[in-house]
Amino acid sequence: MGLIIPGQTPDTLGEIYEYYPSLIELRVAAGIFSVGFLVFTLMLKVAVPIALGEFRVDREVRSDVLDRLPLEPGRA
Q1: How far is CA 2 from CA 5, 18, 49, in A?
Q2: pLDDT per residue as tens digits for the range 64-74
Q3: 67-76, Cβ contacts within 8 angstroms, sequence gap of 24 or more
Q4: Using alpha carbons only, what angle is made at residue 38 by residues 36 and 42, rounded to the nearest 5 degrees?
Q5: Closest Cα partner for 49 from 57, 37, 39?
Q6: Residue 11: what pLDDT?
Q7: Over the stretch 7-65, which tens digit does the pLDDT of each residue have?
Q8: pTM higher than 0.85 for the full model?
Q9: Residues with Cβ < 8 Å from 76, sequence gap 6 or more?
Q10: 22 exposed, middle or buried (CB, 10 Å; 0-12, 13-18, 19+)?
């Protein structure tokens, strides 16, 4: 809003200037939106299975990892 409203106010002579973005500005905006959509998609691929309860840890891998963890303080 801070960029749009001041851009629409007339100058001291009462003239409003029209602005059209250049091709470079449109490409930069498209690149920013595409990176945002990519990040959103990657986060959804992780968040949806967690929310639906379909994200599981394999029991064999989990028990193997738990066996390697130190259970007592100071034990390496």
Answers
A1: 6, 17, 39
A2: 666 666 666 65
A3: none
A4: 120
A5: 57
A6: 79
A7: 677 778 888 777 788 999 999 999 999 999 999 999 999 999 888 988 776 666 566 66
A8: no
A9: 70
A10: exposed
Per-position b or e across 29-61, b if 16+ CB within 10 A of its CB: eeeeeeeeeeeeeeeeeeeeeeeeeeeeeeeee
Q: Which two tokens stand for residue 18?
A: 């029209």
What is the Cα–Cα distance from 62 to 44, expressed in whole angstroms? 24
**Tokens at 38, concatenated:** 């990519």
Rounded CA-CA distance 71/61 in Å is 18
Q: CA-to-CA distance for 50 and 47, rounded, in angstroms? A: 5
Query: Radius of gyration (Cα) for the chain, nearest Å?
Result: 27
